[in-house]
Amino acid sequence: xxxxxxxxxxxxxxxxxTFSLGPVFxxxxxxxxxxxxxxxxxxxxxxxxxxxxxxxxxQLGLSQLVKQFxxxxxxxxxxxxxxxxxxxxxxxxxxxxxxxGTNQPQRVGTFRFISKGFLLNSLNPAVVxxxxxxxxxxxxxxxxxxxxxxxxxxxxxxxxxxSDLLKVYFARRISNYLSSNTLxxxxxxxxxxxxxxxxxxIYSALTGRIQ
Length: 211
Prior knowledge:
The chain is mostly helical and 211 residues long. The protein has helices at residues 2-18, 23-35, 37-59, 63-68, 70-90, 107-122, 125-141, 146-174, 180-207.
């Protein structure tokens, strides 16, 4: 059990460094900077829930079923990413909105940030392929019992979630040194990244390049 957990944490550490850059990463940093640590942590929790869902489904041997709907996932994900991207691009920053982690988020905000992290991560075909690969690694390296395979995957998720929390923490720390104009430009850049990512997903789904 300990070996499975440590092996999973090792993979999680490697993947948190090599697999982190992307639209979700920039959106997570933006949320941490402009909305505070709690809101960023809620988004990180949504990402972790998405990872947990795919890890569980792939470990159950349903990865082929998931891959059959990969193009659909990409198309829907593209539309959602474009929606988030346009909203982010148009948003004006207000420094006073961000808290220092002392104010409790409202219930609507809580659901919004969790669902944003969950959707952006879930509707990314690269995440599907990633967890299919990790389920294969679990089968190859952790052979003693299914329970150890789940522990291996849990070790990966725990490190990925912890790394996301660290990103939010440091993003919040540097927010005190940023101006409203800088944050406006950050919104535009993140918005363009999300929109471009969404367009690419839809194009890939329509042309069959996801497969």
